[in-house]
Specification:
97 residues, mainly beta, two-stranded antiparallel sheet, rod-shaped
Length: 97
């Protein structure tokens, strides 16, 4: 069978696997998924389930930071504690107040 397919007649798409190669688009069952994202789906229909604070097809984009009332929120997951009327800005891991 070609990469990404299995069974006696190669008729079944294999489960996708993670790749560190940003050129891997899932067409052969390997998919680039970063920032802690989890690969899912099957060949030609791979997905990346992103951790909080990241988005887009391969979790490659840091999300805009959002405000939190929890003083422990440091921006590592895109939520940031900002008080006294401050406005939260920045992106995940680089939040500002």
């Amino acid at each position: 069978c070609n990469p990404g397919y299995e069974d006696a007649s190669c008729q079944t798409a294999s489960a996708c696997t993670a790749s560190s190669d940003s050129a891997k688009d899932g067409s052969d069952g390997t998919f680039w998924c970063i920032n802690g994202g989890t690969v899912g789906g099957t060949t030609t229909a791979c997905t990346c389930d992103c951790n909080p604070g990241y988005e887009d097809a391969s979790c490659q984009t840091a999300s805009a930071c959002t405000a939190s009332s929890d003083s422990a929120k440091d921006g590592s997951d895109g939520t940031f504690w900002c008080i006294n009327g401050g406005t939260v800005g920045g992106t995940t891991t680089a939040c500002t107040c």
